[in-house]
Amino acid sequence: MLPLFVIMSKLFMTENKGLMIITPKTYSGGAENVAARLSCFFADFMNVHVVTFDASKIDYNYAGKLVDLELGDNKGAFGKVSSIIKAAFSIKKIKKETNPMACISLIGHPNISNILSKNGELCVVSVRTYLRKSPFLLKRIFQKLYIKFLYNRADKVVAICEGVKHDLINYYGVEEAKIDVIYPYFDTQEIQTLSCDELEDDVSEIFNYPVVITVGRMTYDKGHWHLIKAFKEIKESQPDARLVILGRGELENDLKALAKSMGLEAHIHFLGYRSNPYKYIRAASVFAFPSLIEGFGNALGEAIACGTPVVAADCDVGPREIIAPTSDFTQKASKNEIHACGILVPPFDEKLNFDGNDINENEGRLAAAIIEVLTNKELREKMSESAKIRAESFDIKSVTKQWQHLLGMH
After folding, report:
1. CB burial of residue 263 (10 Å; 0-12, 13-18, 19+)
2. How many Å apart are CA 234 and CA 116, to the nearest integer?
3. What's this model's pTM, rounded to 2 decimal places?
4. Strand pairing of 19-23 and 102-106?
5. What is the pLDDT of residues 68-103, one digit of tens each?
6. How far apart, in whole angstroms, are the C-alpha atoms of residue 281 and residue 45?
7. Cβ atoms < 10 Å from Cβ of 213
8. Per-domain residue ranges for the chain?
9. CATH number of 15-185+395-406
10. Domain 188-393 fold
11. Do the bridges between strand 242-246 and strand 122-127 make them parallel or antiparallel, or are there none, so unpaired?
């Protein structure tokens, strides 16, 4: 005889209209990972359709039915607008066929297509970045126009953190009553299990030394060049130290050239994309996070789940809410701030600068904070324990309850 829970779940799935999740692609990003996690959670008791603009590569495990709109090749402003419109028509058709009770979209283009294709379901859009800090003027102008006009037509707007909510209300004019803050969730137990995997033979030797690690796409937003410059000062204090960078991106060659120009190429290891970054994070002495722009900082949350002390730039939103949750998130560090699970350093200037001879004051502060963690074993151990406790706030069980409540599934 089937357990009562299984019987009720199957009955609910039969009567339930189901859930649609829209994601830009199925690889390489935080929003895509969240879409996969949500699909796996809800597929246990709902019919789930995951609709994506591009499934040419799949990095994450998706549950339910995956629908590829095959719109990944559209480039330029016209191509992107065209793909949004095409997606809206296709999604409207799928909504009519599947009649979902709700549709959740993750980040910009899917959000627009979700709103334009509303068909009576609960329309939920998700904002996962600090939109105002885009380096592209035309993009900022376009965003301000469409967000105020369209997002107030959604039923719910999910902000990834309080800082993003504040920005949506005060800069973009989104109605406060529509906005819910739901932090990203992490399966902390799974992360901690994966973090215990053995390192590959070709990289394990690196971790015989004190390792500073960072994980993230090599793009402007992530500010990797600040960390590489800071590492120059770290090496002067700690000659055995190594820097490990996980991820790929358009600035990869520039960052490698910077490391070489500073004579650091033998001590900075670019390991590319790794499907299990957690084992490297756990093996490192400190996790560095030099971002200029974040929505939350998923990699930072995953680092504390691994129990690794963190040093992060206090950029506009994200790191402060993770590292110092009781502090005023509208204030920024003017000097290094030591907190229970890590250190916040003042935010960096946002100018691309690959001059290895030009190391600024805040890059020096980043170096000093990392050196403090590397050389203070007692502090490192305390931060490690506090990090694991802090990570419980983002555990899958607590956060998925918020999503269920949002969808009216009490």
Report:
1. exposed
2. 51
3. 0.82
4. parallel
5. 999 987 777 778 889 999 999 999 999 999 999 999
6. 34
7. 27
8. 15-185+395-406, 188-393
9. 3.40.50.2000
10. Rossmann fold (3.40.50)
11. unpaired
